[in-house]
Design goal:
15 helices; alpha+beta; single chain; 4-stranded mixed sheet; 50% helix; 363 residues; Hypothetical protein af1432; globular; 3-stranded antiparallel sheet
């Protein structure tokens, strides 16, 4: 959850717990589907559990906050796949079916839907888990009820008609959790500062200025990372965790570079910038005024203003009809997409992409 614990102090749970929880839900779901007559072999069952257990291996320290910082041009899903393939070689091909399910090339698509879709075990676990640890009750979904409403028709995962409103509540809970927790403006501002710490660290290293880093972190920030040395990159990536990042930040507080030390102090001492979130973009005049005010400081150069005064946009969509749509199996045997069966007023808020704009500057 990145730096969400800056706002919700209980949100210090780890991705390891989430991976185990998702695997547990996968096991319960497969049990439920088998009881409804879906044929699932022991090999398929094991493969599905392996795939969901390993689905998030590609996440680096501080999760989505630093997505792409260590592996520019590669998503965490691609890194997860690379690590799974490495494990597959180590275990002499025993993960082959799990990888096929993960890549959505297995001949029974419902397995991939249970791993990566808009109604998968990943989301069922993290929504309830994050709601519990953050204390934000809007995300407290009834995963037991949702699992009980799942079924398989022609090897495609579907929802029984009587489970429509449970799915609506699930989609609404995810949307509310994004605005209330994942995109909370304070933790979001902290994560934006964190990204700029890495940006400045890269700049200093390229200038030949020493920055105290762990060997693995130095490998990525120094530019040694290369797609030609995948094995080496994966080994370094696998050894990274939040401690590497916090070590850099704690050491950076006393760095001779004022920009770097100020950014590190901002995160470590929670002296975060002011952030304003609005429905429309901030005017360029206001942004320039803040940058001009900042550049008048004798401590920093005008070129450093972008580290402290910045803006951007945040987008959130509860349900995307085009991306792995949720299908409902009606009582008469017909199959229809979720939005064709739910109240228009309810689904309109979920399918519409909501964009907000943020503007950060020193207090």
């Amino acid at each position: 959850m990145g730096l969400s614990y800056y706002v919700y102090t209980g949100a210090t749970h780890s991705r390891f717990e989430h991976a185990l929880g998702a695997m547990h839900l996968m096991s319960k779901t497969l049990d439920c589907l088998q009881q409804k007559g879906t044929l699932i072999t022991d090999h398929e069952r094991e493969a599905a559990q392996i795939a969901i257990l390993l689905h998030d291996l590609g996440h680096g320290p501080f999760s989505h906050a630093l997505e792409g910082i260590f592996s520019e041009g590669f998503s965490h899903e691609e890194i997860s796949l690379s690590l799974m393939e490495k494990l597959n070689a180590q275990y002499e091909g025993k993960l082959e079916t799990a990888i096929e399910m993960f890549k959505a090339v297995y001949h029974r698509p419902f397995f991939n839907q249970l791993i990566a879709s808009q109604l998968d075990m990943d989301r069922l676990d993290y929504l309830k888990r994050d709601s519990f640890y953050s204390g934000v009750t809007e995300g407290n979904i009834n995963s037991e009820r949702i699992i009980a409403m799942l079924c398989v028709h022609d090897d495609v995962l579907m929802v029984e008609e009587k489970g429509i409103y449970s799915i609506e509540k699930f989609l609404l809970a995810r949307r509310l959790m994004y605005w209330s927790v994942y995109l909370h403006k304070t933790s979001f501002a902290a994560e934006e500062v964190l990204k700029r710490i890495f940006k400045r660290a890269k700049y200093l290293i390229n200038k030949g200025i020493e920055v105290t880093l762990s060997p693995a972190l130095h490998y990525f920030l120094s530019g040694a990372y290369s797609t030609d040395h995948v094995e080496q990159a994966l080994n370094h990536f696998s050894s990274l965790d939040d401690i590497d990042v916090m070590y850099m930040i704690k050491s950076g507080v006393n760095h001779s570079d004022l920009v770097f030390s100020t950014l590190c102090t901002s995160v470590l001492d929670r002296k975060l910038p002011k952030i304003k979130v609005t429905q429309s973009p901030p005017s360029s005049k206001i942004i320039e005024e803040k940058k001009m005010f900042f550049s008048h400081s004798k401590m920093f150069q005008s070129s450093d203003a972008d580290y402290f005064v910045f803006d951007g946009q945040i987008e959130n969509r509860g349900y995307n009809r085009q991306q792995s749509p949720i299908h409902v199996l009606e009582n008469n045997g017909d199959v229809r997409e979720l939005s064709a069966l739910t109240d228009d007023s309810n689904l309109a808020a979920l399918t519409k992409a909501v964009t907000k704009y943020y503007f950060c500057y020193p207090k």
